[in-house]
Specification:
Length: 441
């Protein structure tokens, strides 16, 4: 007979709190509006699905089950799922249960019972990403994982960090603080929009390397355009020169189908509240085994943890419920299947993009060629400011989009998700057409 503790560990992340005790049993009577059984129905629909991901991508009956697994407000159309994603009901419910159990006696239930269960989530994340469990840290978001790397690698005044001007503003701010504080040098360069030549991207990094270059920061997927960058060849080129590459995977993990073997990098951080649909405030940091001892954590940890990936999780008292509910989100993601999810997100993007491209004044800042982007794309309408168009779509049509005003690219970033319906995309297309024909005044 497994004891209570090992039994719970074996259930990591799968709503185990339902089995924990009276208060958790009470919490199981969660609000009816959550409909957590929606996930089970969705996953049933994918069982035995034998068509190719591309074929399954356009089967609206199949995806209707996935749409029902969420609790989103259908009176509006949310096309900013890249910012942060709603979680399916079953993920919300798992989190609520873990939180209720935590509150029974947190020093015991949260610290002694639930916190050790994080190891099960670590294992599952590592398997999904394709690394060793001992290389996987669970963080609060991509910002935390990236800043661990950005601050944790020693640099001296005059040392150069190379990145692009399309990297995420907070990550640029992080290095800019080191510029002010320590006198390092930050070199940024523009990436073509769109970028369909991986060899050119590698060359753009390579030709800026000097004998003072100590570090490269690059995005796996650029947030303003959805552009996917060729991580592996950049990492290989940099490794030959002894330069580590920090990869910002905030938008990539669980969005399109890849694993660590495709990247070969030493440092990778992502958020899990974007495309994995895990609770808000979840992310992971991968650090290759032999790089762990030399990377400083953001918050100090004891010397005994120097070569332990858990040193990056020494952040003081923190909630456990959100971390454990990552398990439910992983189950949902794996039940759909990463390749099928990617294909559906590409299908949704193509649905709206191909319709809008029939308009003369519409331009895409994102490649529709396979491998260069997935569910996110950036669209511009000639003669209408992105901010004005976004305001119009919200005021007149209750559609949420993200206006982007970047020197390399001005337009609307559109990021539907697996719960987005075809009708919602048609409403968006009609809204933009309305703006084109009649203006946004
Ligand atoms: C490319 C990129 N990096 C990092 C981040 C930071 O993510 P988070 O706010 O979840 O830490 C974002 C957020 O949108 C992003 O787009």
């Amino acid at each position: 007979m497994p004891d209570r503790r090992s039994f719970l560990t074996s259930l990591a992340g799968a709503g185990a709190a339902a089995l924990l005790g009276p208060a958790a049993a009470a919490a199981r009577t969660s609000p009816a509006y959550l409909h957590p059984q929606g996930m089970a129905r969705a996953l049933d629909a994918f069982q035995g699905e034998s068509r190719s991901p591309a074929e399954a991508a356009s089967d609206e009956d199949l995806w209707r089950e996935v749409q029902q697994a969420f609790t989103v407000d259908r009176s509006m159309v949310n096309l900013n799922n890249g910012g942060v994603s709603p979680a399916p009901a079953a993920v919300q419910e798992a989190m609520a249960r873990y939180l209720a159990f935590s509150n029974e006696a947190p020093v015991h239930t949260m610290w002694n019972v639930l916190e050790p269960q994080k190891e099960g989530v670590r294992q599952r994340l590592a398997r999904s990403f394709g690394c060793d469990t001992e290389e996987m840290a669970i963080t609060r978001n991509a910002s935390e994982g990236l800043q661990i790397c950005q601050f944790g690698i020693d640099l001296e005044a005059g040392d150069e960090v190379l990145t692009t001007d399309q990297d995420y503003p907070r990550m640029l701010t992080t290095f800019e603080q080191r510029v002010r504080r320590e006198g390092i040098v930050l070199k940024k360069f523009p990436i073509p929009v769109p970028a369909e030549d991986p060899v050119e991207i590698v060359r753009l990094f390579e030709e800026r390397i000097t004998d003072r270059t100590r570090l490269i920061l690059m995005c796996h997927m650029i947030n303003i355009t959805g552009q996917i960058l060729p991580v592996r060849p950049v990492v290989e080129m940099a490794r030959e020169r002894g330069i580590p590459v920090i990869v910002d995977g905030a938008h990539a993990y669980a969005h399109f189908d890849f694993d660590l073997d495709d990247l070969g990098c030493d440092y990778y951080a992502t958020s899990l509240h974007k495309w994995l649909f895990a609770p808000f405030g979840t992310g992971f940091l991968y650090v290759r085994h032999d790089k762990i001892p030399e990377l400083w954590p953001l918050m100090a940890s004891p010397e005994t943890l120097d070569d332990d990936i858990r040193k990056f999780e020494e952040i003081g008292t923190h909630p456990c419920a959100n971390y454990l509910a990552i398990g439910a989100a992983l189950t949902f993601h794996q039940g759909i299947g990463p390749a099928r999810k990617e294909a559906r997100l590409v299908h949704l993007r193509n649905t709206w993009a191909q319709e809008l491209l029939q308009e003369d004044r519409v331009h895409l800042h994102t490649s529709l060629e396979p491998g260069f982007a997935a569910g996110i794309a950036n669209v511009a309408v000639e003669g209408i400011e992105p901010g004005e168009l976004a305001r119009f779509l919200w005021d007149r049509h209750r559609i949420i989009v993200t206006p982007i005003s970047h020197p390399d690219c001005r337009g609307l970033r559109i990021s539907p998700s697996v719960y987005t319906t075809a009708e919602e995309l048609h409403r968006f297309v009609d809204g933009v057409r309305h703006a084109i024909r009649n203006g946004v005044a």
